[in-house]
Amino acid sequence: GDLDLNEIADQAGTTGADMSHNTLSPDILSAREILARLISFKTVSRNSNLDLIDWVETYLASHGVAATRVYDETQTKAALYAHVGPWVAGGVILSGHSDVVPVDGQAWTRSPFVLEEEGGKIYGRGACDMKGFLALALAAVPFAKTHPLARPLQIAISYDEEVGCIGVRPMIAEMAQHLPRAAAVVVGEPSMMRMVNGHKGGIGFAVHVQGYEVHSSLLDRGVNAIMRAAPLIDWANHINAQNAAQAPSALVAMFDPPYTTAHVGVISGGTAHNITAKDCHFGFDFRVVPGETPAQWVAALNAKVATLRVPMQALRPETDIILTQRFDVPPLTPEQGGAAEALVRRLTGDNGVAVVSYGTEAGQFQEMGYSTVVCGPGDIAQAHQPDEFILSSQFDAGWTFMMRLLDDLAQPAPV
Known about the structure:
This protein is α/β, with parallel strands linked by helices. Helices cover 32% and strands 20% of the residues. The chain has helices at residues 5-12, 31-40, 50-62, 131-139, 141-146, 168-178, 225-245, 294-315, 339-348, 362-367, 392-409, and strands at 67-71, 78-84, 92-97, 116-118, 121-123, 153-158, 184-187, 196-199, 201-210, 261-263, 267-269, 279-288, 320-329, 354-356, 372-374, 389-391. Strands 1-2-6-3-7-15 form a six-stranded mixed sheet. Strands 9, 10, 11, 12 and 13 form a five-stranded antiparallel sheet that branches.
């Protein structure tokens, strides 16, 4: 049942170690060739991703694999999922997102949407986060088609991960309804191929403080939206100090920082210095440790807003503080005896324990009852950076992971 990489390589005129570099036959693209295509699509979250989805769907169809789209409400973006192998439960989902962060204002020294490999690094926007993983997963599809799999491989590609993991939840719901249920999910965010079984969740809001304008010399008769926003913003400082002072659980102590944080990063408001501000807009978000829920922090935020709203509306009833939820990303909690953790440990030999403070789509898969971990090539430190890159050695390690995964899927389900 094992894949004989050397035999395949001999037929292709290359070596097993080089299989992620070279075209194996006229109709099989290498992982690097696929990555070059994926990078060329400018799928910044504010843009449509349909050109990339069109290409992936055509690529999969060329290997006899049907894909299903899950559109957003605007019909300008879509997630995509596919099933390769026997129509049975117990397979593995490889999940990644198609969108990337903007390059605006960044000091790139090369074209961000053209793959360049130099000095042991593969450059391009998304090379690390996370088109590299998607390219590897897609490059494995032809091998999955020709290999006698006992359990299936499923591919999941989402949109709008970078703006709050928005596009994945409807896709998970459709996969759960229409595909044989997978035993494990690997979300390929860059982790240097380490097995990550825990991360913080996040929930974020757009806050609009609606004030009442008067001349600033008569400020007692108006409601200054900026000044009324200040206590809510300062409340974030109190939350952080309070949480930092608490003794963390053993699990939470693994995180950096080891507590839930509240944050305000962008603010705007006001008309002129001598007018009480009519409006103030800012973002407010929490990064929530496992063991706590975003819902409990939403309740705390709503309670604080309610107390701040009372004196505003007593003075001017038309004033308000309005919260609009922008994203909700559940934490990923380590599972006792989880199938995904056992799988990745088998494939990588990583027996360590790792958690991260950033959020991923893994929490949403776990929320829907799937055993899930994070494991992908590349270093998160390179994500979102100018001249973003993935180490060539990491990309090749990701290819080895894919081949070992197909090997594993050729065996009966572990007991």
